[in-house]
Write a structure and sequence with these properties.
heterodimer, A: alpha/beta, about 25% helix, globular, B: MetI-like fold, 12 helices
Chain lengths: ~325, ~280
């Protein structure tokens, strides 16, 4: 990967809550120094439990929220240094598909208006025939263009969300749990559609999910996050887990074949509060392999071709 | 939805019995106010002393006042004053409230805090008190009344708009618009304001009823429209001294105020039901 499309370095996002006349503000680190690179045409998955900072990371990479520190390079340009106008023009090249297809479309916009928005925010009108073309690309009929979101099913709405992301022909799309709110049968259709679009249009994806099974099916590389930090990067989708947390996640995934199904092993213990992180490894309290060293020191992500942040990897 | 949807909702409201009756009365009052000069043979300001205190009859349907002026004519011309003053001042109030509330709700920070303090301050006084103070400063007359009404109701619309914007601001489609590169002005004008319009407009409609009462109150105290311009409030004021001699002088303008305000409230109710926004009004 000589020239990655996206290079994020040491991204940190600190959120403050509360703080008023009498209360002292509390700060939490949603993302704690995450670095990652995504090559052109690659599909990188990010998995982790809810609250692990994967959605925050996605928004940092698109600069929808400003990082507390760290940089994001997109095709060689530092996004954190771009002016508002340059950033707006840069947004033609990147897009996002959201989890909830119900709240991600304005209830007052027709399908045609939703798909014209990516052009209108840039101060232009959609080229003739582009909206019909977009609907075709996501497998919807052109007749839907006068419909309102409430007249469509969840799967159709999510296809509109994908078409909106494709409108300006971007290079890079962040998929934030695009199937998590859909029925299982529809999930498969959406995943198939996304794979097909990637092949046809040569897209680069960052796929955010809590479903490790889905991520391993869909992605080239998998980044595993725990409490705001990367604990392991699986270099290939079928690579074996080295971090005890990844192993536990894999153990808690259902196998589709009932004959293969083993008893699920739940991860024991509670996730530490992000407001009050332990001194050592954040996973130590729940880890079967934890030693005294894990509780005292924080392991760094190793610089190998299968990076893992653990003193006692599998 | 947008404009077509709003028109559809008004149509749905008009098809309910409540909406139809109240809508018909309001149409009658508005048409009467507009076409007053052609509807009656009398002038509102020419005195006819021999005919003073005439009881309702064929010549004078609602009777005449202490100067012999036809009451129906004066009620119709009074509708012009009452309706135009209240509708105009509430429109200004709604518009200003939406701008302030939207800016406060969207941008937050120090501006939001300043607006909230101002709103809470005015909210803690009754509207009539604010109006009386303002009229005392500006001076009696139509301008003073309009400014007083606009300011007295400003807090309500600012608050409602701000609450709507805060609720919609966290919808995913706002983030989606940002991810496409939308400017703040685009998000406010294309997404936030259209989605918060309906409850604010209904609140404005209902406040118009209150504004008619407030205008009549100021008129009753002699602080509103000055003679000889008729207004419902000042007509009732002059009739109050003659309550037993010529009760129609106070009764008919009073009925005009009462029925019109009730009609506005009923129509507002029908509209709330048709727009299905009851819960959103209660949130604020």
């Amino acid at each position: 990967m000589a020239d990655p499309l996206i290079r994020a370095e040491a991204l940190v996002k600190r959120f403050q809550t509360g703080g008023g006349l009498l209360a002292r503000p509390r700060a939490m680190l949603a993302v704690r120094g995450v670095s990652m690179a995504i090559g052109k045409g690659e599909v990188v998955g990010v998995v982790g439990e809810s609250g692990c900072g994967k959605s925050t990371l996605a928004r940092l990479i698109l600069r929808l929220i400003e990082p507390t520190s760290g940089t994001i390079h997109f095709d060689g340009q530092d996004l954190t240094k771009l002016s508002r106008g340059d950033m707006r023009r840069m947004r033609r090249r990147m897009a996002m598909v959201f989890q909830d297809p119900y709240s991600s479309l304005d209830p007052r916009f027709t399908v045609a208006e939703v798909l014209a928005e990516p052009f209108r925010v840039q101060g232009e009108e959609p080229p003739a025939g582009r909206i019909a073309e977009l609907l075709g690309q996501v497998g919807l009929s052109e007749r839907l263009s006068a419909s309102y979101p409430h007249q469509m099913s969840g799967g159709q709405r999510q296809r509109i969300g994908i078409a909106r992301a494709l409108a300006q022909a971007p290079d890079f799309i962040v998929l934030d749990e695009p199937t998590a709110s859909l029925d299982v049968s529809i999930q498969a259709q959406i995943i198939a559609l996304l794979s097909e679009l990637r092949r046809e249009l040569g897209l680069t994806y960052l796929f955010i999910s809590h479903d490790l099974g889905l991520v391993r099916y869909f992605c080239d590389r998998v980044v595993v996050m725990y409490l705001g930090a990367v604990v392991e990067v699986l270099p290939k989708a079928d690579a074996p887990a080295r971090h005890p947390y990844t192993a536990a996640l894999m153990d808690s995934t259902f196998a589709p074949d009932p004959g293969q199904r083993k008893t699920l092993r739940a991860i024991e213990g509670e996730i530490p509060s992000a407001f009050d992180l332990p001194k050592g490894c954040a996973f130590a309290a729940r880890c079967p392999r934890a030693s005294d060293r894990c509780r005292a020191e924080n392991p760094e992500l190793s610089a190998t071709d299968h990076p893992v942040a653990c003193f006692h990897p599998l | 939805m947008s404009l077509k949807g709003t028109l559809n909702s008004i149509g749905r409201a008009l098809r309910t019995p409540k909406g139809a009756i109240s809508g018909a009365w309001l149409a009658l009052v508005v048409l009467g106010a507009i076409f007053a000069p052609v509807l009656t043979p009398y002038d509102y300001d020419i005195q006819d002393l021999p005919n003073a205190f005439a009881a309702p009859s064929f010549a004078h349907w609602l009777g005449t006042d202490e100067f012999g002026r036809d009451l129906l004519t004066r009620v119709l011309y009074g509708a012009r004053t009452s309706l135009s003053v209240s509708v105009l001042s509430i429109s200004v109030s709604v518009f200003t409230g939406m701008v302030l509330g939207a800016a406060a709700g969207y941008f937050g920070g120090a501006f939001d805090r300043a607006v909230t303090i101002f709103v809470d301050l005015t909210w803690s006084f009754p509207e009539i008190l604010i109006a009386l103070i303002l009229v005392a400063i500006i001076g009696p007359g139509i301008t003073g009344t309009m400014v007083a009404i606009a300011v007295a109701y400003l807090a309500q619309f600012t608050r409602l708009t701000r609450a709507q914007i805060m609720a919609i601001r966290s919808e995913t489609y706002i983030e989606a618009a940002k991810s496409l590169g939308a400017r703040d002005s685009f998000i406010l004008l294309r997404h936030l304001l259209p989605n918060s319009l309906a409850p604010v407009l209904v609140a404005g409609m209902l406040a118009t009823g209150d504004a008619i009462i407030l205008e009549a109150t100021l008129g009753f105290f002699g602080l509103g429209a000055q003679p000889p311009t008729p207004s419902w409030g000042s007509m009732m004021s002059s009739g109050s001294a003659l309550l037993f001699k010529a009760p129609w002088i106070i009764v008919f303008p009073g009925l005009a105020v009462a029925i019109t305000v009730v009609a506005i409230n009923l129509f507002g109710d029908a509209l709330i039901r048709a727009l299905d926004i009851k819960t959103r009004l209660r949130e604020a």
